[in-house]
Structure formats: C-alpha cells, structure tokens
Amino acid sequence: MDFWLYLIALIVVLLSQVLLQNNYQKYRKMPSIHRMNGCDVARLILDRNGLHNVKVIVSNRGTLSDYYDPINQIVCLSSDIYYKSSIASVSVAAHEVGHALQHAENYGFIALRNKLLPATQIASQLGWVAIFIGLFARIDFLFWFGIASLIIIMMFQVVTLPIELNASKRALIQLQSTGVVEMEEVPSCQKMLKAAAFTYIAALISTIAQILRLILIRGNRNND
C-alpha cells in the first residue's frame, strides 16, 4: 500500500507539471487579439484598481517564475510573460495582479496563511530530517514530530489553494472588465489558469499521500 501511495503522489505531481507545461507552450504561441503584453496588462489592471504604487518588473529567475511581493509591492513577471502578448502572458500577469488586489483588500485567507508561514518554514526544514532519523533509529518522538511538520505544510497548502483560485477568478474578471481579452479568448485564459491551479492541488494530494505512506511504513516496521 505504501508503494501505491508513493506512486499516486509521483504521478499526480508529474501530471500537473506536464499539464502546466503543455498549456503554457500552447497558449504562449497564441497571440491575444489586442496584442497587449503582460507588463501592460498588469499595469492597466493595477491602475484601474487604484494600485498606482505597485510596481511591475521583469524577473530573471526563468520560465513561470512570476510572483507578487506584498512587502515591496512588486509584481514580478518572467521575461516571456512580461514582454509577450500571448494568452499565456495576459493570463499569468492578471493572476499575479490578482494577488495584489487580494492584499489591497485584506483577503481573509492571506492573513491565515501569514500566521502559518513561520511554522511552515520551520517544518519544511526539519520535517523530513526528523522523519528519516525517527524511522531508521526507531525514535517515535522524532518520527511523529516529522509527521506533525508535514501536517503543518499540508495545512499551509490547504489555505494557499483558495488564495490561488481566487486570484485566478479575479484575473478573469479583470481581463474582461478592462477589455484586455474578448469573449472568445476567455475559455483559453481559463484553461491556462486552471492548469496553473492544478499544480497546487497536486502538491496537496502529494503531501497527503506522503503522510499516509510514512505512517504505513512505520506500522510495517513495528510489525517486523
């Protein structure tokens, strides 16, 4: 059973990455009707919502490295998204601006995620180390500390999911209300955003499967 859980986690994560890359490669080649690049789209939506203080910059981190920095109030877009006027570019740019809109409105789940963030950072550094030592040295306290750490990570992922889905919802609304895309382009934008959202769902499923798998491994070892 633990093997099948590992396989499920691996397949789901790989499937999400393949889905994202396939959709990205497809929609980065599909020009938007109004030929606005990601930078212009982000700036337009920000200004229409009164967020003139939020900057839009280009990232050098590589493909799909886009993010919103709430501390410095910066929308950072990868070069492909920043400069090109494709369906992928306008969709991803609008999604990141969706996070800026969330922060401006004090969207509830963000406050909850911020409370979980310090514990999640500690859990991500110590969790797997504690699990491996606990399993091989048969130290129950360390093992269950590691499992608790993974549960904290899982809770962080659960809270992150509605934030990402809401940002995509906001993106579609803004793309239409600002006239960046036409009605016939909306389904393509939706597919691009859904593919990106699935990576977060896959990460959550993978974490749950890993927790169950590790508990089963421990149970099997105790029965030996």
Concise overview:
The protein has helices at 2-27, 38-48, 79-83, 87-104, 108-136, 140-177, 186-223; strands at residues 55-59, 67-69, 74-78. The protein is mainly α and 224 residues long. The protein is elongated and about 65 Å long.
Kindly describe this structure.
- The protein has a three-stranded mixed β-sheet with strand order 1-3-2.
- The protein contains seven helices and three strands; from the N terminus they run H-H-E-E-E-H-H-H-H-H.
- It has one domain.
- It has helices at 2-27, 38-48, 79-83, 87-104, 108-136, 140-177, 186-223; strands at 55-59, 67-69, 74-78.
- Helix 2 packs parallel to helix 4 (87-104) and helix 5 packs antiparallel against helix 6 (140-177).
- By secondary structure, the chain is mostly helical.
Question: Could you outline the blueprint of secondary structure elements for this entry?
Answer:
Blueprint: H1 2-27, H2 38-48, E1 55-59, E2 67-69, E3 74-78, H3 79-83, H4 87-104, H5 108-136, H6 140-177, H7 186-223
Parallel strand pairs: 1-3
Antiparallel strand pairs: 2-3
Helix pairs in contact: 1-7, 2-4, 4-6, 4-7, 5-6, 6-7
Give the domain tally. Answer: 1
Task: Give the number of helices.
Answer: 7
What is the string of helix and strand elements? HHEEEHHHHH
How many strands in all? 3
Mean of residue pLDDT values:
93
Approximately how much beta-strand content do the residues carry? 5-15%
Strand order of the largest sheet: 1-3-2
Tell me the helix content. Answer: over 70%
The 3D shape can be described as elongated
Distance between the termini: 16 Å
Secondary-structure content class: mainly alpha
Query: What value does the Rg take, in angstroms?
Result: 20 Å
Largest sheet: 3 strands, mixed
Oligomeric form: single chain
Give the low-pLDDT segments: none
